User: Fold this.
Amino acid sequence: MPAVSKGDGMRGLAVFISDIRNCKSKEAEIKRINKELANIRSKFKGDKALDGYSKKKYVCKLLFIFLLGHDIDFGHMEAVNLLSSNKYTEKQIGYLFISVLVNSNSDLISLINNAIKNDLSSRNPTFMNLALHCIANVGSREMAEAFAAEVPRILVAGDTMDSVKQSAALCLLRLNRTSPDLVLMGEWTARVVHLLNDQHLGVVTAATSLITTLAQKSPEDFKTSVSLAVARLSRIVSSASTDLQDYTYYFVAAPWLSVKLLRLLQCYPPPEDGAIRGRLTECLETILNKAQEPPKSKKVQHSNAKNAVLFEAISLIIHHDSEPTLLVRACNQLGQFLQHRETNLRYLALESMCTLASSEFSHEAVKTHIETVINALKSERDVSVRQRAVDLLYAMCDRSNAKQIVAEMLSYLETADYSIREEIVLKVAILAEKYAVDYTWYVDTILNLIRFAGDYVSDEVWYRVIQIVINRDEVQGYAAKTVFEALQAPACHENLVKVGGYILGEFGNLIAGDSRSSPLVQFDLLHSKFHLCSVPTRALLLSAYIKFINLFPEVKGTIQEVLRSDSQLRNADVELQQRAVEYLRLSSIASTDILATVLEEMPPFPERESSILAKLKRKKGPGNLHPDLDENRKERSANGGTADHSSTTSNAKVAASPTPSTDLLGLGSTITTQNSAPPASKGTSLLVDVFSENIAAFPVETPVAVGCLPLAPFPSRFVCKNNGVLYENQLLQIGLKSEFRQNLGRMYVFFGNKTSTQSCYGWPFTVPYCAFFLTVSLQLNVHAKPADPTVDGGAQLQQILNIECMSDFVDAPVLNIQFRYGGTLQNVAVKLPITLNKFFQPTEMTSQDFFQRWKQLGAPQQEVQKIFKAKHSMDTEVTKAKIMGFGAALLDGVDPNPSNFVGAGVIHTKTTQVGCLLRLEPNTHAQMYRLTLRTSRDTVSQRLCDLLSEQF
Amino acid sequence: MQFMLLFSRQGKLRLQKWYVPLSDKERKKISRDLVQTILARKPKMCSFLEWRDLKIVYKRYASLYFCCAVEDQDNELITLEIIHRYVELLDKYFGSVCELDIIFNFEKAYFILDEFLLGGEAQETSKKNVLKAIEQADLLQEVCGLCPR
Assistant:
């Protein structure tokens, strides 16, 4: 028994509690409780009227039993009776019981409300407070209906006591949270805002919470609170620690109120009024300054309260995102906390920095702490702190540090706590995709993910790697080689078998030339995993096998043998059995042509939002996806639009970003970076009749300046390729087919009107006006054959350009298209991929000739050399194809070092012919290339070097 | 704040205050899960953790754990000091409070909490003012409810 028992103790209750505590077992406790419940029930039902004290005691016992976790199904009526008792302690227990146990017991609600109404009008502040507390604790709809109009009146009435005002404010806040439709401030708004000026700090504290909640709902109505909040904050921040008496907490002036005021200000953009804004900036600076002062107390309460205000101030600075100095100061402050001995502060610093990372002003400053954060990931003993470190690394990741961060996350993954593995896997997958410069790195990263944490790699992740490999032809060979190697591990995760099966089934042919990965070896390797896999994986493998039959006719017999075995044809699983039967039949009766058509390589996937990102979004709230936020902000600032501060967490994407790697996430980019092959699977017939002859008359208009238009560069692959889709948006697709001979060229440009295939527009229409302009430099002569200016919806139009190269040039001609769509004039300007190397004629020569000429072109201005990092995998065959596509003859056996490439050719222009020699020296160890160009003309050397170096 | 729980080292709930509407079943499940999670943590670990979509702030005082669940934008450190202030209030009221005081006078613990926090927000942060309100109420024991002021 405790020594102190203030108020009036209830002996019976104390005895009961002691009894329960003395129970040795759960059973004994239940027995004791049931005995008590029976006792109370009989007392309540008994003939003898109970006095107030007994009623209070029994109700209190029931409450205790309920709080122990047992059900209570009676006593409500007795509790309600206590509400109207004229003894305060009885009333108080009655209210407590109702607050804890009321569950929309409809027949009692009106009785309860009645009692509350009486107390509210009693003018006794203690009773009024009890009633208000009860409303706030229950907060039910019925109570909101009964009191939502009355409480604001109490709150603003001139003669209401301070303590009642405080209760009324928070009571209203609770009602507004549960039934916002019923709380209408209307005429009270101005007076409620004015409570920020109240003399009593307790009233201000309570009112600030209320105003913040209301301002979140209707910011416009409570706009005037900003200046009052700034004034109040300024007074608190600049006060001496003793000024606020009991509101000073461990030498910190009114920390709760400060935090609340800073929260309120986060409902609004930075104040427009210069004076208020200046005053607020001063406050924030003072708070940041105080963080540097020596502590006034060694107590943790002092530093916690001080830092609570500091962190809230930093939140406001981040929310405003408009004062670079403050943002950088905030970042430095958090940087200090990252190494603080208090775990709590390290945790909060990591958390807060996450949001700072998304500001364009402080992103770089945050990045400087990368080593500390990586160290936290490795050394923090608390998993929740490590989790924050992962979040921060994810938020601070950009192109410059992606490789390091992904590598660190991958190595952490091997030892990471099970609880956060899946999230790390998703994050690594997203970062690897988002910042992949070369996709070999991406493929390696995902395979490592499967290797280190296969169980946590969800389907979304391995689907995505397949989508990407299918859409990027430059990585397919590498992917096939890498999965082949990975599959050779004696034990590999089933997800790897899935990825391996799919990729080899599609692209196994790209590595089949090597005898170590011949078709049969590939098949045997896949099939060695077959029996260890689950049914869905086996089904996928069967599909890979039939794809093999198409890719490699030589293994057809072996595969048919496998399909024919009883374990396949009579498999207990219907799906497996059906696949085996169907594939066996297909392979036996279909001709090679039919097989090739049915089992053709998968068409590119439509670009769309990464399913991984969607999954991470589902896992976490949108507020945690900082890289997205980051993009949003950059876009906003790029558009020069006014920032909407209330919607910083919105994930809506607006502008298209032209870089291929951002596009990979499918976040709104419209420029195609896919395969050059027309996407036959999408059902559009846009470029199918590429070779049709319907050329119509078309007057060429005068060229216009295009400098002001958004200019889309052509994808760099066009340097080595002549055909493909040049540009695509929702309305228009531009395809190209071109041929060049000596200094002449012909280019077929196909304009496809995509509109009628987009049924979502709801009505059929044509593009009634369409004009093409060409802006051409002097060195090129481009003549456009006239074509019909109208392109119907769903139709396409071909235009022929005849090109003559007069002398060497750098600038590509610009194709400017104007057309009317839905009443507005649309402008599209794209560079045509007419580059100097298109006028190459290959020249074969012997080693001796080559080096003789090489020496002749030895003047310093004739040689241009570039050393650069490989952007793609350093695959010999791909490199060869690119040099040939570039137009030069690839000279085998000329360079004494067999891993180097040399080429020769002549650039034809109308005025001159320029002989060119090139040498490409790969260094696979360093992932670097050295490219040397020697020609008789310095401008040609320079231009060809620039063009070719972009290809590797 | 969404809720506050007080529980012993043995995992027994001593006080529970819910500021959001939840069914009995949900409350029991949340308390059970959370008590387990927190008791499993080591002493030097940080006082904050993410739990479902909430932030948990907790601190241990002698044999009792004080644990608050706040929302994403809420300030963890100030919540930690809310806990401390509540402990100070209990301490002052009971005179060096111990777990037994809260067990035997659980109703008082609730009354003090209501004076300090309402609707999940700090109502009165001055220690003097809160205790004054409680003492006044204690004095009112036998006063007629209809008498004005």
Notes: Confidence is low (pLDDT under 50) at residues 142-149 of chain B. The helical segments of chain B are 24-39, 76-94, 99-104, 106-116, 127-139. The radius of gyration of chain B is 16 Å. Chain B touches chain A through 67 residues (CB under 8 Å).
